[in-house]
């Protein structure tokens, strides 16, 4: 039987668990993702290369791919952590919740024209005290992670899009899971990949 192709569009967290996920699903799926992993790894906080960024950027990327007649068997998407970035000087959030919701609906609609199946992966949790200890760069707040993840979950339910709840899975692993302010230790990346692979291998 011909293996289905999975294409991932996601943030730097998805870049980190990606190699483990690829290995765990290789018997059933061909794994690919937005190009530019090396570029993205030079600065994981910047949405460049393989790091798909916020919902505006994901939507823009999908529109460009649609215009190139891109087609996918399974499209796996996540965004949200870049949307909730807060400028520490203006206190302005990057993409407000209402725009995020609208962007997600647009993402679903264009994805349905390009893919046989769409799967949404939730946001990953942050801990305010760890993330915002930094003296520079943007802020994030766990209340926003929860609000945006819940909004995404509700929209996916309304549009009948499978949703993988990596938020609660990761949150339940405890607090000693972070490599830095938002990314995870190696063993956590493997667990996240296994959680996602378990769902994909059952589809």
TrEMBL record:
The keyword Iron does not apply. The keyword Hydrolase applies. SUPFAM superfamilies: SGNH hydrolase. One of its GO terms (molecular function) is hydrolase activity. Pfam families: Lipase_GDSL. InterPro entries: GDSL (IPR001087), SGNH_hydro_sf (IPR036514). This is SGNH/GDSL hydrolase family protein. It comes from Tissierella carlieri. The lineage of its organism: Bacteria, Bacillati, Bacillota, Tissierellia, Tissierellales.
